[in-house]
Write a structure and sequence with these properties.
This protein has 176 residues and is mainly α. It contains 5 helices and 4 strands. The strands form 2 sheets. A two-stranded antiparallel sheet has the order 1-2. Strands 3-4 form a two-stranded parallel ribbon.
């Protein structure tokens, strides 16, 4: 049982005996609204600390940025930055050279249908375009583990299928 909640507030619990996720596969967590799916992902990502219970990895704790996550929000983390900067900044912060940053950023922009939107800001994008930008920002770092929370919620059927195919290819190739 994993418990979570702020001190003095009502505590919530998730009851899981084991959650085993295999490398190289896409796993889905299903459940009704409010059952704790997002909370579980946040706990796994380290964005929420359980007050009881723990998460154990069968390999060494994933190094940052070895764990990527995209939560249900569609908003860009930095709305005052362009699409291109939102995606490239994590690579720049890692100290990657300009050529590598430009190439990786351009490739993921093309793959996720954001070409021509590189200089746009958050308010100039649809919800689906913002969501794909957030996904691109997470994927550009080639994380070992990627947690996605309702990533298809703002996507059209066309982009939902394209993203699904892209993620399968991404996993098969072991990254970008």
């Amino acid at each position: 049982i994993i418990s979570y909640g702020k001190t003095g507030e009502r505590k919530f619990s998730l009851s899981l005996e084991d959650l085993i996720l295999e490398s190289g596969k896409i796993h889905c967590i299903y459940g009704t609204n409010g059952c704790g799916k997002t909370s579980l992902l946040k706990i796994i990502a380290g964005a929420m600390i359980p007050t009881n219970g723990d998460i154990k990895w069968s390999f060494a704790d994933p190094p940052k940025p070895g764990l990527g996550h995209v939560f249900v929000t569609q908003a860009l983390p930095f709305p005052h930055w362009t699409v291109e900067r939102n995606i490239s900044e994590p690579l720049i912060l890692q100290g990657r050279n300009e050529e590598d940053v430009a190439l990786k950023t351009a490739n993921i922009i093309k793959m996720l249908g954001l070409a021509g939107m590189e200089k746009r800001f958050s308010h100039q994008l649809s919800a689906g375009q913002q969501q794909r930008t957030v996904l691109a920002r997470a994927l550009v770092l080639a994380p070992k583990v990627l947690l996605l929370d309702e990533i298809m919620s703002g996507q059209s059927e066309y982009w939902g299928k394209k993203i699904g195919a892209f993620l399968k290819l991404y996993i098969a190739k072991g990254g970008l």
